[in-house]
Design a protein that fits this description.
This protein has one helix at residues 106-109; strands at residues 3-7, 10-13, 18-25, 32-39, 46-52, 58-60, 68-72, 78-83, 92-100, 117-118, 122-127. The protein is mainly β.
Length: 128
């Protein structure tokens, strides 16, 4: 089955770090743009970062730039989201999604439902 699966969420104190994983099943990320999205309680889903499988280029929304880092493994099977200096406002369900596109960017982060494969999410809770 072709899918993406997130993992790595949990409870963490403010100021600490957490690393999320997005694993591809049934395909590799070579020709895909892979994005991380999140949805906080009572808020709309927002795209926060993406990486291009073709050349490894990355994009960040201002809300996470400088604190979060997106990367992928050399086999193009797993995409990571390293989250540092976490804040209670980062509490959300984090989703990974992939779409066949040469480069990622804000267009895909603003159009979650255009992504070809969307995971079920992993919960991140940041306590103050």
């Amino acid at each position: 089955e072709v899918q993406v699966v997130e993992s790595g969420g949990g409870l963490v104190q403010a100021g600490k770090s957490l690393r999320l994983f997005c694993a591809a099943s049934g395909f590799t990320f070579d020709d895909y743009a892979i994005g991380w999205f999140r949805q906080a309680p009572g808020k709309e889903r927002e795209g926060i970062s993406c990486i291009s499988g073709s050349d490894g280029s990355t994009y960040y929304e201002t809300s996470v730039e400088g604190r979060f880092t997106i990367s992928s493994d050399t086999d193009k099977i797993t995409v990571y989201l390293q989250m540092n200096s976490l804040e209670p406002e980062d509490t959300a369900v984090y989703y990974c999604a992939a779409t066949k596109a040469p480069l990622c960017g804000s267009y895909y982060l603003h159009n979650y439902y255009l992504m070809d494969y969307r995971g079920k999410g992993t919960l991140v809770t940041v306590s103050s």
